[in-house]
């Protein structure tokens, strides 16, 4: 069974270690899993119910929803900013949580991973993302975790795809998303 996994990265910086982690997920996807990296989170306006009106949704938000609705699962990759989730990722979650009760996350498996410079690898931000996406209707895979500390030094000269430990763990995360979606479809 082919599974499309939409990946959202909470960092907008081109050289971001979290973006590199997402790129690694694309390269390491097992057979039957297509990991797609969404481009364009920076273009989406802050969520506002006044502009989330049928026929008037900003095109950038509509593009995000279209990509999300066409996906079977989600991989959210987040840095940690001041101990919490970056605004750009929270904004994407807000857009995808609507319409209430029927948002793009509803009933779909979601894994959250990330890397940060600190010694805990961004676990606070990851916990916040899991909470927000769970409230938005996603089926959060709470036992699927990957927090990589010391990002700036660990990946200074090595891309995450070339770090054997990270590559193995990330491959397992994507495989679990793929397998969970397959289990859901068979049920």
Characteristics of this structure?
globular, 187 residues, five-stranded parallel beta sheet, alpha/beta, Rossmann fold, 5 strands
Describe it for me?
The protein is an alpha/beta fold and 187 residues long. It has one domain (3-186): Flavodoxin domain (Rossmann fold, 3-Layer(aba) Sandwich). It has helices at 17-28, 59-69, 87-96, 123-135, 151-154, 164-186; strands at 3-9, 33-37, 73-77, 109-115, 139-148. The chain has a five-stranded parallel β-sheet with strand order 2-1-3-4-5, with helices on both faces. β4 (109-115), α4 and β5 (139-148) form a beta-alpha-beta unit.
Estimate the strand proportion.
Answer: 15-25%
Mean pLDDT: 93
**Helices and strands: which structural class?**
alpha/beta
Question: Count of helices?
Answer: 6
Biggest sheet, spatial arrangement of strands: 2-1-3-4-5
The assigned CATH architecture is 3-Layer(aba) Sandwich
CATH superfamily: Flavodoxin domain
At CATH level 3, the topology is: Rossmann fold
Indicate the overall shape.
globular
Query: How many distinct beta strands?
Result: 5
CATH class: Alpha Beta
Please estimate the helix content.
Answer: 25-40%
Cα distance, first to last residue?
A: 14 Å
Domain count: 1
* Low-pLDDT residue intervals, each spanning 5 or more residues: none
Largest sheet: 5 strands, parallel
Order of helices and strands: EHEHEHEHEHH
List strands and helices in order, with pairings.
Elements: E1 3-9, H1 17-28, E2 33-37, H2 59-69, E3 73-77, H3 87-96, E4 109-115, H4 123-135, E5 139-148, H5 151-154, H6 164-186
Parallel strand pairs: 1-2, 1-3, 3-4, 4-5
